[in-house]
Amino acid sequence: xxxxxxxxxxxxxxxxxxxxxxxxxxxxxxxxxxxxxxxxxxxxxxxxxxxxxxxxxxxxxxxxxxxxxxxxxxxxxxxxxxxxxxxxxxxxxxxxxxxxxxxxxxxxxxxxxxxxxxxxxxxxxxxxxxxxxxxxxxxxxxxxxxxxxxxxxxxxxxxxxxxxxxxxxxxxxxxxxxxxxxxxxxxxxxxxxxxxxxxxxxxxxxxxxxxxxxxxxxxxxxxxxxxxxxxxxxxxxxxxxxxxxxxxxxxxxxxxxxxxxxxxxxxxxxxxxxxxxxxxxxxxxxxxxxxxxxxxxxxxxxxxxxxxxxxxxxxxxxxxxxxxxxxxxxxxxxxxxxxxxxxxxxxxxxxxxxxxxxxxxxxxxxxxxxxxxxxxxxxxxxxxxxxxxxxxxxxxxxxxxxxxxxxxxxxxxxxxxxxxxxxxxxxxxxx
Amino acid sequence: xxxxxxxxxxxxxxxxxxxxxxxxxxxxxxxxxxxxxxxxxxxxxxxxxxxxxxxxxxxxxxxxxxxxxxxxxxxxxxxxxxxxxxxxxxxxxxxxxxxxxxxxxxxxxxxxxxxxxxxxxxxxxxxxxxxxxxxxxxxxxxxxxxxxxxxxxxxxxxxxxxxxxxxxxxxxxxxxxxx
Lengths: 431, 179
What we know:
Structural class of chain B: alpha+beta
Number of strands of chain B: 6
Largest sheet of chain B: 3 strands, antiparallel
Mean pLDDT of chain B: 85
Strand content of chain B: 5-15%
Radius of gyration of chain A: 37 Å
Distance between the termini of chain B: 73 Å
Largest sheet of chain A: 3 strands, antiparallel
Shape of chain A: flat
Strand order of the largest sheet of chain A: 1-3-2
Structural class of chain A: mainly alpha
Number of helices of chain A: 18
Helix content of chain B: 40-55%
Strand content of chain A: 5-15%
Oligomer: heterodimer
Order of helices and strands of chain A: HHHHEHHEEHHHHHHHHHHEHHEE
Radius of gyration of chain B: 20 Å
Shape of chain B: elongated
Low-confidence stretches of chain A: 1-32, 275-279
Strand order of the largest sheet of chain B: 1-3-2
Helix content of chain A: 55-70%
């Protein structure tokens, strides 16, 4: 019996809400694999039909095709083979033809990978004719994988991607709410653009500001295109408040971001010309506001290495010297607070803490019938149970005259405890 | 005399003579100084001031960050603004009220800026104080104007641009919030 035999109960203790989220558990364990293999099942806070899970469950047969192609061994070869097949005009192939088309792979490897794809229903096989075909789901998955075979999604293309995802969702009949969520995601991109742009106005980097404004302009153009392409879809949902709100929010953001990005680009990139033509005009208020907005460090940089001090040692003005003396003489040296009077400390005997191994040993001697380790050690709380279990191990390692143990292959599952399972071990106490 | 103080230009017409001035420049140059005429004075200043990190060098007199910041504020008010503001050249010697200078340094006590720092800069020849107004001293007038103006122009241009854009962003926010 080892500590790992004991597992926390997943249900019933009412403490599941304190359990770390799956993501945190993943970070703690270090790898996604360990999380998938042994991590706790996520706990719902609302009934399942109020979550996106039923829709995901319904789509799992299609979604699992991605996992079977991408998430297993030799994924790169399978994706490359599917991309090659997609580019071939024929809709079905015999194995020999497949080996010809996938000329960049050894024929025996083609046979292996085709067999693997057939086993997960990405390729179907006609027994009578001996032809292989891409299943309809596999064709969609292959097309999407082909489109996604890019090093990364550049922020520039974000709204374009979401636009095409909306079109795909409509074509596949994914439902209005799915399309709305994708649209809201595109709106969130624009809102993030606005936040970034206004934040960069306080930054001192023209290049970063210009770069952000250029990105915003591209996103605004893409959002206009999105609104045009899905005009009919939005028009058909005029009766839904959430669609109208999202539509209005998108139009507002397009208007203000379009104006702001154009003004930033014009102002930042056109400023040099303006200066050359007319020069910069300032007034006392500009100087006053500028000085008030800058720290001493920034201001000093304007004349640093230009303001050369005189080559002679300057005399100190008597008035200044006397002022400084007066200020210094008014200072009172700080003194530490007085120490409290001494007191006589009373000695107290050290608190006696019973040895847990001795306690459990006494309990073992008091047993008058065969008892399992779970019955002896497990309590409601995990911490107390594991402490008693460790004490039991400690006792058996220290004393020889303890009752014999009989190990069993079964496991016990104690009720009303945070401990889920304990391998069954019986303490053979005298009756 | 030039390594111990400044000379009134009006009382030293010899220095307007190119040959005489050339000889003075040569002599000053041998000890790393240059002759500069500014604000009615002749003065000597280091050609290339040694930096604080030069091995073994300890400056007898150095300007700290706050003093440099006050010099920058004075430069903008007394040298840059009169040359760049519309209709600012009215013939009077540019000056700025001490109160105006204090407004630029709200984080410091007025006593520290107006007496300690300005007093120090007055002794160093960067500023003159008459009643409650400050005037450019010869060492402020002797700043390299081309370089200082260029830096000021860039800094003020950035400030004006961002102030304008922030104002536009606030207007756009207000417009769409009220829709």
